[in-house]
Amino acid sequence: MTMKSLTPALPLILVAALGAAGCQHLPEQDARSVAPNLESIDTAMAAPETAPREAGPALPPQVQETLLPPVSVELPASARRVEQRFDIAVNGIPARQFFIGLVEDSPYNMVVHPDVAGSLTLDLKNVSVEEVMQTVRDVYGYEYRRNGNVYQVMPARMRSRVFKVDYLNIQRTGSSRTRVSSGQVSEAAAGGGDEDGENGSSSSRSDSGSNRTSVSGSEVNTRSESDFWSELRDALTMLIGEEEGRRVVINAQAGILVVRALPGELRDVEDYLATLQDVVQRQVILEAKIVEVELNEGFRTGINWSALGEPKTGQTVFGGQAGGGSIITDGVAEFAGSPVTLTPGAGIIAAETSSFGGMNFLSINMNDFTAFLELLKSQGKVQVLSSPRVSTVNNQKAVIKVGTDEFFVTDVETDTNTTLNTTNQSVNVELTPFFSGVALDVIPQISAEDEVTLHIHPTVSEVSERTKSINVSTETSLEIPLALSSIRESDTIIRARSGQIVVIGGLMKDQQTNEVAKTPGLGDVPMFGKLFQHQRERKTKSELVILLRPIVTSGSGGNVWNEQVRQSAERIGRMQSPDPDTTGH
């Protein structure tokens, strides 16, 4: 509705005239003559309008639209048309007759397909036309479409429908293994010889890779496979079946699938695909810090988690098993498996437990890693080895690898050919790369409540070279550079909320170094330089701590990520804004 209003112009003209007159200086005689006129004007304005005033010249329509734009009045929601509700009860009525009679005395129209047959029985109270149509479709299978005020009823027969699914056309296979090996046992391979008169020859071969048996103390193998489109085809075929011409056609390259089934089955397929895409497209950002803490003298048995200061009031901490056993205690913390509220002036843990062996699992609510790193500095020198960051979707493996690959000899194969007068020998060496650095392997599973279940396999390895001498024969020996690996790794499954920091500790290492202190100049004098030198052995113990924080970026969990982005933008803005002290304002 458009409304327009024009205000009478006479009072405005009079006020303007009076204002203009008030700006002028009148002589005394003129002022006396003006007073009666003002009284007449006041009397005329106070008197009711008994006769219509003569209308002035009409303004052009463009001027009226400019001066007084149209006012759009929108009816409130309560004033809109209310859906008519009614009671309905039928028993064995033909379907065509039911649908036609359903829209009588209503603003809706009904078109029924000629093949619609069957009968209906129902008893509903206080329902609308749309609710009745949905109920009949769910119970009797009559499919319908609504276009404005027109309902089209279709028979329950086979139909084809096209669906779109957004997913990569790839197949992925991943594996992870953690093994504690006790060694290997090799069986000797029998050599062969052949002689023929004076020109006899013999050959022998030694293969260190044959007949080898590994003796393993413990081993954990994790394998993940992803063949999305093949699994989707099997699921839809199981959902609709294969009887009476039902089919599923998938074009993985275009992300399109065609399903031929009954209308009710097509609705089931639609619901399944909607749930499937919501689950597989959940995304999480995994932030990690791999930290090595060189422990102080008072913490050589491991990080004392109970001695850490409280980060903030009202924060909660959740821990698993802590410490190791002793004569008095079994090494299990009293808070194991239970949340604890942090209070000012109190440590994280007040339980009497040894820190021997460190903490297996700890999760704490903090905004960033900085606060927790500051807590660790109270017990040793903190060095961040790596800060990997990776984003992945639901149930998909992500691997981060930072380091170098060095090649070392892992297999030696010798071939000896002996004739009557000569002996020829050849050696084949097999090289294998050894990784030295930091690797992180994670697989997340994101729930509808934004809780993340993680399979985590962190590895920190250091490879050094050690030369070993092998006597091939009485006259020949081989100097083989072998790899000496120092590995600290963990393979575990944890659960955390979006934005929560998970701590994995207890990976300790002893290191011994020789330190030499000498007097400058005199300490380098040959033969006598050792008189001005001081040597000592320094033993250090360090513990590897892994901090991991999952942040869900999809669904309701995206609020945590949006808050992180907002805080980062504010910090950048404060860094770029001028300092009032430096500008002099």
Question: Top keywords for this entry?
Answer:
585 residues, 8-stranded antiparallel β-sheet, 7-stranded antiparallel β-sheet, 3 domains, disordered N terminus, elongated, alpha+beta, Ribosomal Protein S8, Chain: A, domain 1
For this structure, the quaternary state is single chain
The major β-sheet equals: 8 strands, antiparallel
Structural class: alpha+beta
Helix content: 10-25%
**Number of spatially distinct domains:** 3
Radius of gyration: 43 Å
Tell me the layout of helices and strands:
Blueprint: E1 2-3, H1 10-22, H2 28-46, H3 61-67, E2 71-72, E3 86-94, H4 95-102, E4 109-112, E5 119-127, H5 129-140, E6 143-147, E7 150-154, E8 159-164, E9 171-186, E10 192-194, E11 201-207, E12 212-227, H6 228-240, E13 247-251, E14 256-261, H7 263-280, E15 283-295, E16 316-319, E17 339-341, E18 362-364, H8 370-376, E19 380-386, E20 389-393, E21 398-418, E22 423-446, E23 451-471, E24 477-489, E25 492-497, E26 501-518, E27 533-552, H9 558-576, H10 580-583
Parallel strand pairs: 4-7
Antiparallel strand pairs: 1-2, 3-5, 6-7, 8-14, 9-12, 10-11, 11-21, 13-14, 15-19, 15-20, 15-27, 16-17, 16-18, 18-26, 21-22, 22-23, 23-24, 23-25, 26-27
